[in-house]
Here is the input.
Amino acid sequence: MKHLKKPSEWVAPLVPMVSLAVLPLGPLFFPRVYLLFLFAYFSLFLFSQVNHVCKFWLTSCKIRANIRKWNARLPAITNDNDTFVSATSRTNSPNVTRERTITHTVHHDDEGQALEDIEERLQYYEDPTYCHAFIIPNYCEPDGLLKDTIGRLASHRNASTHYTIILAMEASEPEHEAKGQRLQAVFENRFAHFIVTAHPADIPGESRGKGSNVAYAARHGSQELLRRGVDRRRIILTISDSDSSIPELYVREVEEALQRSSDPHHLLLAPPIFFSRNCFDVPAAVRVTDITWSAMVMSNLSNSRGLSFPCSNYSLSLILAERVGYWDTDADAVGEDMHMWLKCFFKTNGQVRTAPIYVPINLTNVQTDGYFSNVNARFVQAKRHYNGVADVAYTLQNAFSREAKSATSILGSASSSLAMAASSSVNWRDKLTVCILILEAHMIPATSGWLMFAAVPLMQFLLFPPLHWLAIVSPISNPILTYEFYGQLWTLVKIITVLLPFPLFATLAIYEHLHRSIDRDFLRKSKSEMRQWSNLLDYTMLPVAAWLFMTLPSTLACVKRLRKKEEEYIVSEKFFQDDEGLSLPK
Here is the structure.
């Protein structure tokens, strides 16, 4: 425990340990204080969940509005000014592309309105302003999966002129050079640039994982782009998982957000994540876990102050990455997406904001051969995700540190004006908000499961045992019986615990509607490929999924902070159907 030198580093391990300890000790030794604590905790939790439902509903509305806008602007003009024909759209199957011809008839009252509408549609196809560099970190991934991910980007209209692929490989992977060369040969004429990097496994002080791979690829890939004459102010780095299906609409919305911003180099652009590629091939417990995970990410995006965290896929300018010193690579930066946002926020003295991009990025669920093997693989993934709890200490240290963090030495001459702007102090309201959001993201999972499932039943058992000989607390010492105030408070606590699941029910109802809308209107799935009403039975697995994939792994991740140990580099197992029809594990 010698590495726990600051009070902020003790927060993560102590919170779940104290939560577990008070379950039996609270009713026995300090029932009044414990009852007040339960009332405050459950009330705040209920309020936060209602707030998340409202934000999730706003996000879902904006996602559907973006899809409608895309579908309306997508068609190209034919000889008839009233009829438009859409371009090719992909199916959910990763290896099949089907043509869909969709006609849209323009109804207008006068010729001027029609011409204005046509001009708007054509303007949406103007060349991008920025050079989009997609960093794809991968380790022992099958060629077919990477071909599919890169191929989806290659199908975008401006890929050959404005897209760069930075294939971020690990030097420790056997035959990584041959794999990189094969992929480069397949796509060499499909992109403006195709760069392959190989992250060494023996860099001192680094922890192996996605963050260190991305940091290496971003540094070396951007240097190569600069050497080839690309303007650094035009380079936008997009971090993509190896199984991400990034639609062209995402890039279009990124372009619009950057052009709307008064300072695009202080933006981190984050989309929602969505699991619809292999969701019917995994156990229901895995499926509903990723559904709730997706819903939490989506609700997080609708933050009015732009203080929201990216998940898995996100974009930022090279200028911003250079300014903050790229990605951290130590063991405490394992949650690379959230950690990078925090680093950008604090290194720029709170000037960085998140620009939500309301375009879903379709991912694959963890999938292995066998039911229990699949459940175990999702549990391993959950443990890795919650290792990001290290960001609790990082956030508290930076939020309340009095040391001035000058970015002048990091920033190059091309953006020295930004360094001068960074001298302004961070808004304390924003600091406090970020701290609350981080504590909510990591401490609520590590405590809510234990308290919600066990606090009220255990207190009921200890203070009101079913048999008199089981009584540990005498009636005269029971504040619920001797004080009217605590008796009413106990009743309120039980009522609140009954209400706690209802925001979750509302979230799932919104999600079901959104999932069907995305499948139908954006991914162009047939009815047989979409979620059915029978899939509502998946939610019966929620109690098991919540405890197994949230409460337990988050608690273990917090307690592991008591000892410092290098984590093994493990990638999530998934299956991918390659061109020859073989299922290959990822």
Q: What stands out?
A: Residues 76-122, 403-424, 579-586 have pLDDT under 50 and may be disordered. Residues 35 and 206 are 45 Å apart (CA to CA). The two ends are 36 Å apart (CA to CA).
